[in-house]
Design a protein that fits this description.
Elements (H helix, E strand, L loop, with lengths): L3 H25 L4 H27 L1
Keywords: Membrane, Transmembrane, Transmembrane helix
Length: 60
């Protein structure tokens, strides 16, 4: 059975990947620059910061 931190990490990375794809689509489709940058930042947060915090928080 998977631990909670692993489930949070996998889910967060999947959500981040979706935001990354949305940002890439926005960049190619010439969406508003602020929207595209915001989507990239959200993707980075979901793919890096949240899994690390989840792993450290549940390990303690």
């Amino acid at each position: 059975m998977l631990e909670t931190s692993v489930i949070i990490g996998i889910g967060s990375i999947c959500i981040g990947f979706v935001f990354f794809l949305l940002a890439a689509t926005g960049a190619r489709s010439r969406w508003d620059r602020k929207v595209t940058i915001t989507l990239f930042v959200i993707a980075i947060v979901f793919m890096t910061i949240i899994p690390v915090i989840g792993a450290v928080g549940f390990a303690a």
